[in-house]
Amino acid sequence: MNLYSFWLRIRGGILGAVLFAGVLALRSSSRMFAAEASLHSGELHATRIPREHWSHRLQMAKALGLNTVSTYVFWSRHEPEPGKFDWSGDKDIAEFCRMAQREGLQVLIRPGPYVCGEYDLGGMPWWLLREREMRLRTRHPAYLNAVRRYYKAFGEQMVPTVPSPPATTTARPSTRRVGPRRSSLPCAR
Question: At residue 86, what are phi and psi to the nearest 5 degrees?
């Protein structure tokens, strides 16, 4: 199964999918697959930082005590024209993830399609507006086809960065309770 089909399989839940370049996925059932983790995360939007500064920024994040960095993937930066993808230079999100892994950081990837991020159209490409009947962020067929094409290209970039889980472990829902027990809350006494 590739990342694109994995994304499509679990994207429909309340939380949808949270993808890491370190093997962690959450589902809408609020159960974690793979290892439970304590995330101390900060935002580093790779495409807003010149590539030559990525390593230094990641080292600074690590020095602050972070174990995870979160990054938006702005669709408009990667598909400037329909079907023409650019994952080079400052837009090489896979290399950003590999650099983070080398620094001992996990990466929380937020690929959109709409990411807000104080970015025009929420990071969606302007060319979506060429079609008069286009309805963004809906089930409009042309919009969904464009999103599928983007997710497929994104998945093809990201699959090599996701390590395979060890053969001796199986991903299963955690049965351990997460968070405080009701009886330990002051209002529950």
Answer: -130, 110
